[in-house]
Each structure stands twice: as C-alpha cells, then as structure tokens.
Amino acid sequence: MNNSVLDLVGNTPLVKAKRLLDNPKVELYFKLEGQNPGGSVKDRAAYNMIKSALERGDIDKNTKLIEATSGNTGIALAMIAGIFGLNIELVMPENSTIERVQTMEAYGAKVILTDAEIGIEGSRDYAEEKMATGNYFMLNQFANDDNWQAHYKTTGPEIWRDTNQKITHFVSSMGTTGTIMGTSTFLKEQSAEVQIVGVQPGDGARIPGIRKWPQEYLPKIFKPEKVDQVIEVTEEEAVKMTRRLAEEEGIFAGMSSGGAAAAAVKLANSLESGLIVSIVCDRGDRYLSSDLFKK
Q1: In sequence order, which residues have a C-beta less than 8 Å from that of residue 178 and are 6 or more positions away?
Q2: I need a labelling partner for 206 at 20 to 30 A (CA). Which of 10, 118, 121, 233 fits?
Q3: Is 173 annotated as a binding residue?
Q4: Domain range holding 68?
Q5: By the 8 A CB rule, do 233 and 255 touch?
Q6: Are residues 277 and 165 part of one domain?
Q7: DSSP string, 36-77
Q8: What is the CATH number of the domain that holds 69?
Q9: Is 38 marked as a binding-site residue?
Q10: Sorted alphabetically, which CDD domains does this protein's record hold (predicted)?
Q11: Catalytic residue (one of 40, 123, 173, 256)
Q12: What is the mean pLDDT of residues 204-228?
C-alpha cells in the first residue's frame, strides 16, 4: 500500500527486446518510463526539483511557478505541483499535441502557447521574460542540478541493480540531458567500462523530445565528457522504430523513444557482445492526434 501517487515514481520495469535484434550475442532491454504515474521519465526530475526547492525554502505555497516545456516535463510538473498545492504556469510551442495541453490542464496547470515557428527556444525566452518581472519562480530544468540528480539517485541505481551489474551500454535520447547526465554519473562510478550513448536528431530532423541545441540554448547541466558516443537518427528512423516497438514488442511509446531504440538497435548490431539498456521515456497515447501512428 502506498501513501501517495508520489510513491509510484521510479522503479520502472526493464523488458527484453524479443524481435528487434539480429545479433544473438547482444541483449537489449527497454526501461519503461511510461509506467511512472505521470506517464514519463520526467516524473523523476519534476518530483526532485519541486521537493528539493520546497525543502530548501526556495518556494512555498504562495510562489507562482513558471516553466518552459516541450511536453513531458510540463505534465510531470503539473501533476506534482498539484499534489503539493502549488500554482504553476507552463509554456510550450503551439504545435504541441492537444493531449499534452489537456493533460497539463487536467492536473490544474495554466498553459501558455508560444509561436510554433520559434519552437521551444521561444517558450524558454517567454518564461525567462516572465521571471524577470519578479513575480515568478522558474525551476529551470535546463540548468537545475536537481534534474540530473534525480537520475543519479534513482534511474542509475535501478538499472545497475536490475541488470545484475552486467550493463555494458546505456542509450538515451538527449533533450534537457538530465536523464543521461545523472544516469551516466552513477553508472560510471560503478564501472568506468559502461559506455554512455546519447541520441540526437540528424541534420534537419524534427523529433519531439530530442534536440541538437544551438550553443546559446545548450542546457547548463550538460557535460559532454559524460557521453562516450553520440548516435544521430533521422526522423524516418525514429518514426519507423516507434511503430515497430508497438507492433513487434508491444511497447507503446513516443517518437523520442523510437529514436533511442533505433540507435540502440544500430549499436547492438555493431557489437560482438553486450547488454544494452535503452530508455523508453513515455507512452504513445499522448501522440495519437499526431501523424506518428498513421499509416
């Protein structure tokens, strides 16, 4: 029995790929972050950012929170802010799927939509301008150490434990980079041999949740030395693998998870042996109004 929905954040399952691999000497496991109560890996960071800010006294119930998001972090923040009785305003590009907007609103958040043409960078600029008025507090997932530390405290230890310390490669899409930074830090402390593989979109590819940031918007929590290899994936590869995950593995996920899985399969087919863990960062039901699953 759990005292709160917050007790359900983390300890997500690992499942083994059954049909995607051609290399019998490599094991590929998917970590199903859609099993978190808010439906994504971002529950971990959102919970740690809000809880830590409350404990330090940075915020209280009179604070107006504001945050720019491409979706999953916003949903997680809306859910957790509601549980703590906090007021939150979320800013995202106007081309975000309606499922994301409505889910945030269902949790009680106010949602502001910014021009799709300037993307998440425009949402970040809007949030910064609002914060500069002095009436808001921004958790700032892109520069907040509580983001990556959530994964140092939970995601990394879970993977190490659940693979019986046999993991050889960790694969994660890179957006805010909190997941890969925190998990890398923990896993490298256990074994310097574990290879950390980041996934980015190829030139011109638009994959929600994965970014190749312009230098001025690069997340401040990102430390390139914590990533051993970067694999680029195309939009077509990400879409195709997202559909294959659902059809062949029964894993219903979003496009950034498909991008990570595409990179993980490429990696697996290049190795002589190994045990790979790839993050499946959310669930596919928040993309149904998009073209992702349309044939």
Answers
A1: 45, 141, 147, 148, 150, 151, 219, 221
A2: 10
A3: no
A4: 64-134
A5: no
A6: yes
A7: STTSBTHHHHHHHHHHHHHHHTS--TT-EEEEE-SSHHHHHH
A8: 3.40.50.1100
A9: no
A10: CBS_like (cd01561)
A11: 256
A12: 90
32-88 tens-digit pLDDT: 999 999 999 999 999 999 999 999 999 999 999 999 998 899 999 999 999 999 999
Instruction: Please count the structural domains in the chain.
Output: 2
Helix, strand, coil percentages for the chain (3-state, nearest 5): 45, 20, 35
**What is the C-alpha separation between 269 and 23, in angstroms, rounded?**
6
Q: Are residues 162 and 277 in the same domain?
A: yes
Known catalytic residue at 110? no
Considering the chain, what percentage of its residues have pLDDT values greater than 70? 100
Sorting pLDDT into bands at 50, 70 and 90, what band is 213?
confident
Helices marked H in 85-167: 98-106, 119-132, 145-150, 156-162
Structural tokens at position 184: 């890398």
72 is in an annotated binding site: yes
Residue 127 lies in a domain: yes
Catalytic residue, chosen from 42, 123, 172, 173, is: 42
Bridge partner list, 32: 280
178 labelled as ligand-binding? Answer: yes
| Residue 282 shares a structural domain with residue 159 | yes
In our burial notation (b when 16+ CB lie closer than 10 A, e otherwise), range 188-201 reads: beeeeebbbbbbbb
Residues 31 and 178: their CA atoms lie apart, in Å, by 16
Q: What is the 3-state secondary structure (H, E, C) of 204-265?
A: CCCCCCCCCCCHHHCCCCCCHHHCCEEEEECHHHHHHHHHHHHHHHCCCCCHHHHHHHHHHH
CA–CA dist 150, 128 (Å, integer): 24
177 is in an annotated binding site: yes
Query: Please, which residues bridge with residue 15 across strands?
Result: 30
Radius of gyration for the alpha carbons in the chain, expressed in angstroms and rounded: 18
Query: Is 176 part of any known ligand binding site?
Result: yes
pLDDT in tens, 110-131: 999 999 998 888 999 999 999 9
